[in-house]
Specification:
The protein contains 5 helices and 17 strands. By secondary structure, it is mainly β. 13% of the residues lie in helices and 43% in strands.
Length: 359
């Protein structure tokens, strides 16, 4: 259900300024503490923002209140194989038997094992511990400034009713050292919901835009009719490589069977583009002198394109772009009204948690 991502590239601390801090600890009169770590993830010419949050009971300096803080984690019963949300005491969070009982999806992982450091593997069930080690061993460690990592995580989606906006956050769950053979990338694996009119043509091109939806869970709506299950619009740009691919996109997204449901669901691998792409230099990009050289016979177009470097940086792009297919398409029971933005049945429940400086 959730959108998961895979990243390969470098991880860097953000540069702090008056309005933006990479690491923040907020304390409240109640004794509640919120710790927030943001850092850059760079693959090629793309730059993404990762974020890890932790909430716990503590003092005014952000130190954990060990007796009051408890951890909730999905624990699997060895006999019944059922997984339930279980309360774990703070002091037991690193106990081997406790860690073993927690399901893989409920644990954070930092794996920095090398031949020189064979013990560099650790699992976590408390986000604050994970934040501290990522900050110490990666973001503040100059020895890994040029090291590439492979990061697995989730795309966390939230919605602000007052602003009418969806917010997507990349939350890393597991961090490993990347292999030399792995190419830089930032990809989302998702199951997207689409209707009969979701695929739009891009004027003047052979490209498409798919206006789809992703189903996600938001705990703040668990008491409403939707039981916490919400839908977020997802726009995917599609660039067919040839006429056959173009025909296939049309077939899969437009040609519904007569007895098919109004909306179908399909798995998809999506490239996350957030930066300047390298594009091939064309004649219209050449400067005035280069064009004059060609016009008066001092050089050819091919020679001037070569002198220009052959490639250059294009405009900054922020988009989701189709990469490949995932699971096969299937019918759903969703109707138009199911895909509307979430709302509280009782308007008094609505509580906008977003502040302008956090967007």
């Amino acid at each position: 259900m959730a959108m998961n991502f895979t990243f390969v590239g470098k991880l860097k601390a953000v540069k702090d300024n008056e309005k933006f801090k990479g690491y923040e600890v907020r304390t409240f009169e109640s004794g509640w503490v919120q710790t927030n770590l943001k850092f850059n993830a760079m693959n090629g010419n793309n730059r993404h923002m990762f974020q890890i949050k932790a909430g716990y009971w503590g003092d005014k300096n952000g130190n954990v209140n060990e007796s009051k803080t408890v951890i909730y984690a999905p624990v699997t019963n060895e006999e019944t194989h059922k997984t339930t949300r279980t309360k774990i005491a703070y002091v037991d969070r690193e106990d081997e038997s406790v860690l073993k009982s927690v399901s893989k999806g409920g644990k954070y992982v930092l794996d920095l094992r090398t031949d020189e450091n064979p013990a560099g593997y650790k699992e976590y069930i408390f986000e604050k511990d994970f934040i501290d080690d990522v900050k110490k061993h990666i973001l503040e460690n100059t020895r890994v400034s040029d090291v590439r990592f492979r990061v697995l995580g989730e795309v966390e989606i939230t919605y602000s009713e007052s602003k009418g906006n969806f917010y997507k956050t990349f939350v890393p769950k597991k961090i490993y050292l990347a292999k030399d053979t792995e190419e830089d990338k930032m990809q989302i694996n998702a199951k997207l919901i689409y209707g009969r009119t979701s695929l739009e043509d891009v004027a003047g091109t052979d490209n498409f835009v798919l206006n789809a939806y992703s189903r996600y869970y938001d705990n703040s709506y668990r008491g409403d009719n939707c039981k916490g299950y919400c839908f977020c619009p997802v726009e995917v740009n599609i660039v067919p490589k040839n006429e056959k691919q173009k025909d296939l996109f049309v077939k899969r997204f437009r040609e519904f069977e007569t007895d098919s449901s109004e909306y179908r669901e399909i798995g998809m691998v999506i490239d996350v583009i957030d930066g300047q792409e390298i594009v091939r230099v064309t004649e219209d990009m050449l400067g005035e002198e280069a064009k004059e050289n060609i016009e008066y016979g001092f050089s050819t177009l091919e020679e001037e394109l070569k002198k220009a470097g052959g490639t250059t940086y294009g405009p900054r792009i922020t988009e989701y772009r189709f990469n490949n297919w995932g699971s096969p398409s299937e019918d759903t029971v969703y109707q138009d009204e199911d895909l509307l933005p979430p709302h509280h049945d009782d308007e008094e429940k609505s509580d906008d948690i977003f502040e302008d400086d956090e967007i």
